[in-house]
Design goal:
Order of helices and strands of chain A: HHHHHHHHH
Largest interface: A-B, 33 and 42 residues
Strand content of chain B: 15-25%
CATH superfamily of chain A: MetI-like
Structural class of chain B: alpha/beta
Distance between the termini of chain A: 51 Å
Shape of chain A: flat
Helix content of chain B: 25-40%
Order of helices and strands of chain B: HHEEEHEHEHEEEHEHEHEHEEEEHHH
Shape of chain B: globular
Structural class of chain A: mainly alpha
Number of domains of chain A: 1
Low-confidence stretches of chain A: none
CATH class of the largest domain in chain B: Alpha Beta
Oligomer: heterodimer
Distance between the termini of chain B: 77 Å
Number of strands of chain A: 0
Strand content of chain A: under 5%
Largest sheet of chain B: 6 strands, mixed
Largest sheet of chain A: none
């Protein structure tokens, strides 16, 4: 009990930072994934190329090095973001790059016949995408998006590099004070697990929401 | 019922967002460099100091949440005399201290960092505030009989744990311990756990770090005694800890040094650092940053 009293308040404070990064990063990632995912399948080069460059650069380089670069190197060029903003930005850019592939593959997985049918019904490209294709692609995106979200939650542990005290780093600090390694990391694991379960419950709810029409008709 | 549940969910969600919402100041704290740092921190009344949470040099007291240790307490004293009322700690990993200082994430390193020629190429140092020797953490009974860096080098199969960015890696290399016998840990507690778990034969750190860690751990570990001080180029190696400044902040460093010279070695100073295990025989004597930077 005394153990929890000493460590839990600090760990919860760390959890708050972890969740700030997760939620902020996820919102940014979702927006970037949608734009870049659609961009990558655009017939126009001006849309396709920047999206390709973004996805390949952020997927192809280490998130830790990106954090380092944004936090320690950019200020030397006169661009300086606060630590929390840097964390959200880098984690969002990173997850967004993976998310773009989820979006692209889900759209590609909708049978070509759906596009043809939409065209036969006189829908233009845009209407076909938003009214016919995306409603079918969205339920396919959500399970891998849930994966990415949990991955993001755990990747937030990287940001201790840039002076943010998130959950893992807080656990390290508490451990430095008392050297109670085993119980502290057990508690930290439990907190991560609980946080991941809450996030995944949210994703499952979203899944039910976007597939409600299917159940309605079954 | 369904409406009530949805309402409850919304309330929970709103509370959650309110909890997460950045408080004033959390989004502040971008990098600040250039201009006259001393004038800026005097006007602000606070100076941001970087530390790596290493007792007894600079750490957060787990009970009070206060930044304390040899370096922060001394920094408080000196900065107060320079007209800066408050110090604000920025916690980061030891290896990030120098890059973060250079990027303007804080203005001073107050972590008891040793002055080394390599670090002097990156940042400026104040004059040293203490000088201490080395020690090993080993399993109880010291089964491999490790009593110094050269012992470890000459003991077949013995491995050494050090902390990332710390000086002991250079000591190990200087006496000729091969890199494949050195394990680099992210922080001191990990290195101690590494010895306890048999991942390394010994963990090399300063006397004070070792004493502090051994006073906290319940694992069957001890300080290797007697310990042969490391001698390189005919001189006994001692670590001289000091404060770090950006290369552009020579004026701030000089002002800091001036106050420091009147402080180090006084009764008030010894009283201030005594709670952290620093004693009269750890005073830096007449060593200066300039001399230590030249070094080997």
């Amino acid at each position: 009990m005394a153990f929890l009293q000493t460590h839990l308040p600090a760990l919860l404070d760390g959890l708050r930072t972890t969740l700030q990064l997760t939620v902020g990063g996820a919102l940014l990632a979702a927006a970037l994934a949608a734009v870049a995912g659609l961009g990558r399948r655009s017939p126009r080069r001006l849309c396709r190329w920047p999206a390709n460059v973004y996805v390949e650069v952020f997927r192809g380089t280490s998130a830790l090095v990106q954090l380092f670069w944004f936090y320690f190197a950019l200020p030397l060029f006169g661009v300086s973001l606060p630590a929390l903003a840097t964390g959200v930005l880098v984690l969002g850019l990173n997850s967004g790059a993976y998310g773009a592939e989820v979006v692209r593959s889900a759209i590609a997985a909708v049978p070509a016949g759906q596009w043809e049918a939409a065209r036969a019904l006189q829908l233009d490209e845009r209407q076909a995408l938003f009214r016919v294709i995306l409603p079918q692609a969205l339920p396919m995106m959500l399970p891998p998006a849930g994966n990415l979200l949990v991955e993001l939650l755990k990747n937030t542990a990287l940001v201790s590099l840039i002076t943010l005290s998130e959950l893992t780093f807080t656990a390290q600090v508490q451990r430095a004070a008392t050297l109670e390694t085993v119980p502290l990391f057990a508690l930290t694991l439990a907190i991560y697990f609980a946080a991941a379960q809450v996030l995944l419950a949210g994703v499952r709810r979203l899944e039910r929401h976007v597939t409600r029409h299917r159940r309605g008709r079954a | 019922m369904a409406r009530l549940r949805r309402l409850a969910l919304l309330v929970v969600l709103a509370l959650f967002v309110a909890w997460l919402w950045p408080r004033p100041g959390e989004l502040a704290g971008g990098a600040k460099t250039g201009g006259d740092t001393l004038a800026r921190i005097r006007e602000a009344g606070t100076v941001r100091v970087g530390f790596a949470n290493e007792a007894p040099f600079a750490y957060v007291d787990a009970e009070t949440g206060r930044l304390t240790g040899e370096a922060p307490e001394l920094a408080r004293l000196v900065f107060r005399q320079l007209g800066v009322a408050e110090i604000r700690g920025v916690l980061t990993e030891f290896g990030s201290l120098i890059p973060a200082l250079k990027a303007g994430r804080f203005d001073v390193i107050a972590a008891g960092m040793y002055i080394t020629p390599e670090r002097c190429r990156e940042i400026l140092f104040s004059d040293p505030t203490y000088a201490i020797g080395e020690a090993f953490v080993v399993p109880a009974g010291n089964p491999l009989g490790l009593h110094g860096y050269r012992d470890l080098r000459d003991t077949e199969g013995a491995t050494l744990g050090v902390v990332t960015g710390a000086i002991q890696l250079e000591y190990a290399r200087a006496v000729g311990i091969a890199d494949d016998r050195i394990r680099i840990f992210p922080d001191a507690p990990s290195a101690v756990d590494g010895v306890a778990a048999g991942r390394v034969s010994a963990y090399g750190a300063t006397v004070l770090t070792v004493n502090d860690l051994l006073s906290k751990t319940s694992a069957p570990l001890e300080r290797a005694e007697p310990f042969t001080e490391l001698v390189l180029d005919g001189e006994t190696v001692k670590g001289y800890g000091a404060f770090g400044f950006r290369r552009g902040d020579a004026a701030l460093r000089d002002a800091f040094n001036q106050v420091l010279r009147g402080t180090i070695g006084t009764e008030a100073h010894l009283e201030l650092v005594a709670p952290f295990g620093f004693t009269r025989d750890m005073l830096p004597g007449d060593a200066t940053a300039a001399a230590l930077c030249e070094g080997a």
